[in-house]
Design a protein that fits this description.
mainly beta; Outer Surface Protein A, domain 3; 2 domains; 13% helix; 49% strand
């Protein structure tokens, strides 16, 4: 009798677990490489059903390997109306980028990273457009370029650097286009005019 009860309980547990797993698989959303909804056998990413938390829904996206691809809070269960910090990841687990949203609008600082880990670029948003200082870095952590953006476009003094850290070029942008004379430098730091 004990064996029968034990077998019955194990069967119930396995049945309940199977139903829960089937429900979880049913609620999983599958996406192709372009983030269009797809069938599981054509997917590159997946998202378990978002979980309600406070005034929003926690979104956790994954690569097919099971590595986390993104985590965020959206104010809507099915639409990207992000609120707060959003982090994307490379499949190796390193952070790809972090950005902030307020009710679906980009605000504040954004940081992008090289797949190997070092910071790649850093800038901020105002009214959903890149505004203020912009800096970029090579994978070796040396500055690659720096300047200022206004309403999403490069504007004002701008500098570009070689991978060894020496100045490569300097000049100005106006509304996203290079203007005036730009001074260029060789890899050893000497001006092309010398």
């Amino acid at each position: 009798m004990k064996t029968y009860i034990f077998t019955f309980l194990v069967g119930c547990f396995i049945g309940t677990t199977s139903v829960a797993a089937a429900q979880a698989a049913k609620d999983t959303l599958w996406f192709d490489a372009n983030w269009s909804p797809s069938a599981k056998n054509q997917a590159s990413y997946f998202r378990p059903q978002p979980v309600k938390k406070g005034n929003g829904f926690v979104w956790m996206d994954y690569y097919l390997s099971g590595a986390k691809q993104m985590d965020a809070v959206s104010l809507d269960e099915t639409e990207e109306i992000f609120d707060g910090s959003v982090t994307w990841y490379f499949e190796n687990g390193n952070v790809m980028q972090t950005v902030n949203y307020k009710k679906g609008v980009l605000v504040g600082e954004r940081k992008n990273y090289h797949e190997s880990g070092p910071l790649k670029s850093q800038y901020s948003y105002k009214d959903a457009l890149i505004s203020g200082p912009w800096v970029g870095y090579y994978e070796n952590a040396k500055l690659s370029e720096s300047g200022t953006c206004v309403k999403g476009l490069r504007d004002g003094a701008w500098k570009e650097y070689h991978k060894n850290g020496k100045l490569k070029g300097e000049g100005k942008y106006k509304a996203g286009k290079k203007v005036g004379a730009w001074k260029m430098y060789y890899y050893d730091g000497k001006s092309e005019d010398e």
